[in-house]
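User: Here's a structure from my thesis project, written as structure tokens. My advisor, Dr. K., wants to see whether a designed sequence matches the one we expressed. Can you design one independently, without my sequence as a hint?
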């Protein structure tokens, strides 16, 4: 049988392996680390189970469809619980915490009570997005877009027609939303696809739309239940998984890849290859030029703490005065924000297994630029650590050093060394260096017919649901086995 080698055992690689197997390939999955899941793999420490990457899930049907395609009942593998409230907001100037209920209407009313001027604009935005979203389901989420004529697809055009094409993401938001509270909530979303709020990034508005309309979810057992469920399915389907198998190069013949080289091991013959590691770390093996500017990454701090902290919800947002300046630093100056919006995750609110009884597993996430030449990440990380602790204190969520059992930090340097992310970026290069300045590159390699790409640097983009889809796109784009 024809063999497909999948390089990288994150969620994209697992999805690609499953879909390539369903297409009839004999599949070998190579992962350099000693566990699967990539950024969604768990870290076990001092009796705590940490999810050091994603903390919330949207679009649960995308994972469920993977199991359905394999003829399985998704509920036998993976179950989700809806977060309610889906977010707690603490903001300078707000009279206490604001909990946003899962129910869309209740959420809009809760926001309307603190920002009455925004309620009509928010309803208009939700109605526009409800009308536009199905066109994305039928295009960007259905198949790759890598040929210029596809831009003229009537459904893509109909999506675009919902938004004034001259306006940037920020202008689209500001047109409808006036309150600092909701602007702070909305401004962060373009970074989730490596874009800025000055981009023509209307598509990024779909993320808050899905959160409000379809809910924010958490897998039972933690985020790592997703790669665990995909691993189980892959193994049942007969995918061969090799851990501690670091790929170091490739052999080619004409327009085909023929072998994958593994550190300390014999080369593996391949009829097809799916690159599910960062495409720009992989590129030099094919003598591809390096892009110039990376996009965005994260700075995170994870603590194992003594004591319980019910005042921090599963997903809590800290919004400081001056957050606008923080977004300008992030998006316009490509600097870590000095007044960041901080996402806190306290998984113990819904998952008692995440920390020993009487303890808290607390995770802080800040969006930051990746490894730009003008940034010294040793210096930046030290400052961000200080800012994060100060902000927790200021919002009444601080703790003593003596409460800390451990502290674990990640910054762009970590994502580069641990996961092979090019310059620590989660989304590859800056949008100017993308397909038509708009999309991540499609799954097909321009030169090698039996090579395709999955993951956060391929279409349809980053985030767990998107990389799950990217695995399907990459397997579908391979020649028939
Ligand atoms: C702090 C943080 C918060 C996030 N929050 C969310 C969220 O709330 N919701 C959401 O949906 N998404 C979130 N994301 C994004 C999400 O985690 C990623 O988009 C997704 O996990 C990327 O999956 P991937 O398989 O493309 O890449 P990765 O998970 O990076 O997997 C790539 C794999 O390739 C392996 N590899 C690399 N080089 C080699 C080599 N040479 N040989 C063999 N193997 C190799 C790596 O070890 C790794 O396992 C977050 C990410 C982070 C870091």
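Assistant: Designed independently from the structure alone:
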């Amino acid at each position: 049988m024809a063999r497909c080698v999948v390089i990288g055992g994150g969620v994209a690689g697992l999805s690609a392996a499953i879909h390539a197997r369903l297409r009839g390939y004999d599949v070998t999955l190579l992962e350099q680390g000693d566990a699967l899941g990539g950024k969604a793999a768990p870290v076990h420490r001092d009796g705590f189970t940490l999810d050091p990457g994603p903390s919330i899930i949207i679009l649960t049907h995308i994972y469920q469809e993977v199991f359905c395609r394999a003829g399985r009942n998704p509920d036998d593998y993976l179950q989700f619980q809806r977060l309610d409230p889906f977010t707690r907001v603490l903001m300078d100037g707000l009279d206490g915490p604001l909990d946003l209920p899962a129910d869309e209407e209740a959420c809009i009313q809760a926001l309307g009570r603190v920002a009455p001027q925004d309620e009509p604009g928010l309803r208009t935005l939700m109605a526009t997005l409800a009308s536009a979203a199905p066109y994305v389901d039928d295009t960007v989420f259905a198949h790759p877009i890598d040929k210029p004529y596809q831009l003229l697809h009537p459904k893509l055009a109909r999506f675009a027609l919902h938004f004034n094409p001259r306006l940037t993401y920020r202008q689209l938001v500001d047109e409808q939303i006036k309150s600092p509270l909701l602007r702070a909530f909305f401004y962060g979303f373009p970074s989730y696809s490596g874009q800025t709020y000055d981009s023509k990034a209307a598509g990024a508005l779909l993320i808050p739309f899905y959160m409000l309309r379809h809910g924010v979810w958490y897998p039972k057992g933690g985020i790592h239940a997703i790669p665990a469920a995909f691993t189980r399915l892959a193994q049942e389907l007969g995918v061969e998984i090799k851990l501690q198998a670091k790929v170091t190069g490739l052999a080619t013949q004409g327009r085909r890849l023929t072998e994958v080289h593994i550190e300390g091991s014999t080369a593996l013959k391949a009829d097809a290859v799916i690159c599910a590691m960062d495409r720009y770390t992989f590129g030099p093996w094919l003598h591809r030029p390096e892009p110039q500017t990376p996009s965005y990454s994260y700075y995170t701090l994870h603590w194992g703490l003594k004591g319980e902290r019910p005042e921090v919800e599963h997903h809590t947002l800290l919004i400081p005065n001056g957050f606008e300046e923080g977004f300008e630093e992030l998006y316009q100056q490509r600097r870590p924000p000095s007044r960041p919006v901080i996402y806190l995750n306290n998984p113990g609110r819904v998952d008692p297994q995440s920390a020993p009884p009487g303890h808290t597993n607390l995770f802080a996430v800040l969006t930051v630029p990746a490894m730009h030449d003008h940034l010294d990440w040793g210096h930046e990380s030290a400052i961000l650590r200080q800012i994060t602790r100060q902000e927790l204190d200021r919002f009444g969520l601080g703790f003593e050093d003596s409460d800390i059992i451990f502290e674990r930090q990640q910054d762009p340097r970590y994502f580069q060394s641990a996961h092979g992310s090019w310059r620590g970026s989660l989304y590859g290069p800056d949008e100017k260096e993308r397909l038509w300045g708009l999309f991540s590159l499609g799954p097909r390699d321009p030169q090698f017919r039996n090579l395709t790409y999955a993951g956060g640097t391929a279409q349809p983009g980053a985030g767990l649901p998107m990389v799950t889809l990217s695995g399907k796109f990459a397997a579908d784009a391979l020649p028939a086995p």
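When you compare it with your expressed construct, this may help: The pocket of flavin-adenine dinucleotide is lined by residues 7-13, 30-33, 38-40, 53-56, 246-247, 276-277, 298, 300, 365, 419-420, 426, 455-456, 462-464, 467 (CB under 6 Å).
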